[in-house]
Amino acid sequence: MNDNKEFNSRFAQNLGCTHFLIGNQRWHIRELLNIQSILLCNAPSLKEGILWWSKYLSLFDRMLYVESKIDNGFLSLTFRTHGNLSLPTFVYSSTQNLLVQLQRFNTFQYSWMQTKAHHFPQLRNEFGSGLKIHFDLREVNVEGDPEQNMFELARQVFVMLQKQGMEKEDLSCRLKKHIRDHLNSPLRLADLAKSLGVSARTLQRRLQDKQLNFSTLIENEKKAVALRLLADTDLNSSSIAAQLGYDDASNFHRAFRKWYPFTPQHYRELCINNRTLQKSNPIRLHYATWNTHIEQNKQGKVWLEVDNIAFEKSVSVECLDRDGVWRHYPAFFEYFLSRGTELWSTANLPVAGPLRFKLHYEINGDKFVNDNHQHNYVVHDGILIGHPLIVVPTMIIVHEARGFRMVIELVCKRAYIDKIECIIDHHDGCVIAMDKTRENSQYVFWSLSTYLESLPKRCFFRLHSLDKQQLFCDNYQNGYIFTPPK
């Protein structure tokens, strides 16, 4: 078994994670490396053990492959990557660890490693993007009796893992777990970095690479825990505030009102009265955006309609990432759209373009996947509208002179709409005509920019078709709510 804690730690640092998600199971690096060690140490022959060990390494990076050659008792292994990319760092540390493990076989192997070890570091540059090592199998024999049953079991596990999607439990997952475990105490980036075994500067750089913000991660976890405690417990506001690290209930109340357009007590009442029966399709696309204007910072975002069957649910969006791997990104509750329906959204998604994704919903042990009838959702033209007739991606209020400047952008799925009016605050309130700005084969974009003397709270839209029909869009009777300017 591979019980080298120092190597396991270094291997995890090279990979950037300590766990992999395989199916619904969470595997520690140590468990995966133990299987590799069993393949090496319990194979019928050393040659077979080394070959299985080297094949296993490709599980950690599917771009990696190994070429093997046997000639007159010599075994040569060459590690390469598809596309001739640079070898992952873990390949070098892993092959060094392999030589250490081979010491167990006999004294000659130890002698061989001692005399050849000084050549090993040079192999990095000698073969460019590849790494080549040689073994003299004529001089090395396995000591003891290999456990054939253990080898067969490990080989079957390896074959199973080859067929499974293995996702790294990435940095954001590790951060969120640490944050959840320490919400009731002050959270500092330096302390978090220490718990992850990296420097604060390295952690800050990794956060920036993934376009993550430490303060936003903390706030998102506080929001998620607050919603769960309000929905599933009878704890009062003071107790919830203490669990979230707030000094008193009033600070928690102010934070909650900054997050949502209702009070904690109102949310608790809505949770009790707003359940719905399970449907065949309890998760639907509201809309998604994909920013294609900034070449170096392309990112998307997805909004979802989720049936409120029960509070404890996991909602995520599975996206095709830049390296060709499908990864899950969590979604977060925003507000109630209607009785039994909630609006959730992801953070910005720095993934591959065009944005390709599936919707995932897990609740009470049941799993639902909405993959657009096996075609996946794809955002080509900046925006993709799902269930609603219109979406409003931009609603901005800013101070101007003694009043306010209101800017709205609306996207409509129907091309035969001739006119759209924005109604401020009430059906009989201020009515402003919108301008058609651009259109494509699927959507028409409308916008307005106007000055108001008083601060608006919400708006509605009235659509006029070419045949003089009218449609009133009220966002599930809630209207479209403005966020007050700071």
How is the topology of this model organized?
Layout: H1 5-15, E1 19-22, E2 25-28, H2 29-41, H3 46-56, E3 64-71, E4 74-81, H4 89-101, H5 107-116, H6 123-126, E5 131-136, H7 148-163, E6 166-168, H8 171-181, H9 189-196, H10 200-209, H11 214-232, H12 237-243, H13 249-259, H14 264-273, E7 283-291, E8 299-307, E9 313-320, E10 326-338, E11 341-346, E12 355-363, E13 366-370, E14 377-379, E15 383-385, E16 390-400, E17 403-412, E18 417-424, E19 430-433, E20 435-439, E21 444-452, E22 458-465, E23 470-473, E24 480-481
Antiparallel strand pairs: 1-2, 1-6, 3-4, 4-5, 7-8, 7-15, 8-11, 9-10, 9-12, 10-11, 12-13, 12-14, 16-17, 17-21, 18-19, 18-22, 20-21, 22-23, 22-24
Helix pairs in contact: 1-4, 2-3, 2-7, 8-11, 9-10, 12-13
What is the distance, rounded to the nearest whole angstrom, between the alpha carbons of the first and last residues? 59 Å
- In round numbers, the mean pLDDT is 82
Low-confidence stretches: 106-128
The secondary structure category is alpha+beta
Verbal overview:
The structure is a single chain. The chain is α+β, with helices and mostly antiparallel strands. The protein folds into four domains: 5-166, no CATH class; 171-273, Arc Repressor Mutant, subunit A, CATH 1.10.10; 283-385, Carbohydrate binding type-21 domain (Immunoglobulin-like); 390-481, Immunoglobulin-like (Sandwich). It has helices at residues 5-15, 29-41, 46-56, 89-101, 107-116, 123-126, 148-163, 171-181, 189-196, 200-209, 214-232, 237-243, 249-259, 264-273, and strands at residues 19-22, 25-28, 64-71, 74-81, 131-136, 166-168, 283-291, 299-307, 313-320, 326-338, 341-346, 355-363, 366-370, 377-379, 383-385, 390-400, 403-412, 417-424, 430-433, 435-439, 444-452, 458-465, 470-473, 480-481. The strands form five sheets. Strands 7, 8, 9, 10, 11, 12, 13, 14 and 15 form a nine-stranded antiparallel sheet that branches. Strands 18, 19, 22, 23 and 24 form a five-stranded antiparallel sheet that branches. A four-stranded antiparallel sheet has the order 16-17-21-20, with no helix packed on it. Strand 20 and strand 21 (444-452) form a beta hairpin. The termini are far apart. Mean pLDDT is 82; it is low at 106-128.
